[in-house]
Each structure stands twice: as structure tokens, then as C-alpha cells.
TrEMBL record:
Domain Peptidase S74: 64-155
Coiled coil, from the record: 141-168
PROSITE patterns named in the record: ICA, PROKAR_LIPOPROTEIN
Keyword Flavoprotein in record: no
Protein name: Tail fiber domain-containing protein
Organism per entry: Jejudonia soesokkakensis
Amino acid sequence: MKVAIRYVIALFLTLGMLSCSSNDDDNNNSSEICNNGIDDDGDGQIDCQDGDCSEAQNCTQGGSDIRLKENITLLPYGLSEVLQLEGKMYSYKADVSSEKRLGFIAQDVQLIMPELVSTNVSNDRLQIHYMDMMAVLVNAIQEQQILLDDHELQIEILSCQIEKQEQLK
């Protein structure tokens, strides 16, 4: 009896998988699997380079432990580089749905911060390391905050000077 139940379960699972895969083929709604090195959804992007994988755990978590790193230096990029970036809206040529995407053009980023761009060896296309860009954005925010604090101090000094001049009148 237990053997028969196992065969029924195996048959059910097999039919379930077959029906899922045939639905995907019929509707052309396949989605990117984010860790298999294949362009599953046909948009020209593989795994973590595919926007569909931007929130996948294997694409967002890196080895940040200092014990894994060497040659650590301060980041040379910040606000001036971020101000040169131009965000774009686009769709991929290979994406039949023409879904609008937001991002940057790799060739543009490469001119400003070449370390953020690499060439995909499987297709010779440029790709942006968006997760690495976060460090640049944090630097830019910190630089901007210093400017804001400085301006606030200048305003306070000028306000005091105006107040003193008005008291002299």
C-alpha cells in the first residue's frame, strides 16, 4: 500500500511539473532563475544582471566581512561623480513585452566610474555592478550633508550679523 501511495505522489508531482513547464512555453511567461547562469526569460540579462533578480538573496548579499578583504582604501568617488550620472528609462530590445526599465547606460557609467562596469565574457556585453554603486551613493549623501551643515552654519552667522547691525540702529 505504501509503495502505491509513493507512485501516486510521484505521478502527481511529475504531471504538476509538466503542466507548469508547458504553461510557461505556451504563454512565454518564463521568469529569470537567479543562480543558474542562463538567460531564462530571454531578455538578454543573466542571473544577477537581470532586473528581475535585483531583490534575490544571492544577488543582494555580498561578502562584507573584513576578514575576506585586502587592499582596503577610501572610495575616491562621491557627489561629483553621482551628479554626472544620467538616469534613463528604457526597454530591452529582446524583451517582447517592451517593459520599461529604469537604470543607467553602462558605457556612460564606464566613462565616470570604470570600476562599476565589467564585460560579460559569455556575450561580450557591458554590465553595471549596481550593488557596488551603493557605496558611491552613500559617499555622495555624506558629502552633501557636509555641504548642508556648512550652509546652515553660514546662514546662522549671517543672521547673527544682521541682528547685531539692527541693534546698532
